[in-house]
Please model this.
Amino acid sequence: MQKTIISVKNLVKKYGDFEAVKGISFDVYEGEIFGLLGPNGAGKSTTLEIIETLREKTSGEVVVDGFNLDTAPNDIKKLIGVQLQTSGYYPGLNLTELIQLFSGLYNRDIDPLKLLDTVNLRDKAKSKYKELSGGQKQRFSIATTLINEPKIIFLDEPTTGLDPQARRNLWDLIREIRAKGTTVIITTHYMDEAEILCDRVAIVDAGKIIASNTPDHLIDDLVATGFERPKEVKKANLEDVFIHLTGKALREE
Ligand code: ADP
Ligand code: MG
Model:
């Protein structure tokens, strides 16, 4: 039996008259990679930010590791890792100094080089954030979620805009973080990514969850309706060709 670490019940968020989240319910299990999938405007970021205590909900119940969002938001804050807004990355500071600054905010004593090692950025310790490539920026951003040694991290579209090599590199990193016991909630538009990375997903559309299960189950359910892909599926796709030709090595360094 899996332990539920996040429980969301009938969550509603209104922006004025507009209902962006329309009473969604889902559970996230401890130690899993859970994906919130959905088109732009579906309400994914709103939902994440409410759980992260960064946005007020309109109604509904959110419980994180036994702490109710209404009564114990500060306890929730202590056990989650949130990607900080890039506006907090003071342009004059290098990565080491930024980590020192953030650890101070969290009241933690973190060795910046050790943390940079976990995201493969030790050699950029003296670089400024703006000097990093897209993939390196994302890896640094993920590093900042780990500063307070959280039980759960939230990643909102971490691979958007990355090349295939950097995307794969980030998948490995997310798997490593999970392997250490951290629960991961991720949003993505890439279904190949969700299929490979997520243990379970919820598909959100216009503020409602329209399906939720393991990727495997959802695919089997669709196939059971008689659905078939229009073309016979080849044993490789163009991305396989690209990776085969260009290799898996990261290009940014
Ligand atoms: P997603 O992350 O799935 O793309 P969002 O949660 O960002 O979706 O947004 C859901 C809906 O709520 C969108 O229609 C968006 O325009 C609207 N929305 C988001 N933030 C605000 C806000 N601060 N004020 C008004 N409407 C908002
Ligand atoms: Mg979003």
The chain is about 35% helix and 25% strand. Strands lie at 4-15, 18-29, 33-37, 59-64, 67-68, 80-82, 152-156, 183-188, 200-205, 208-213.
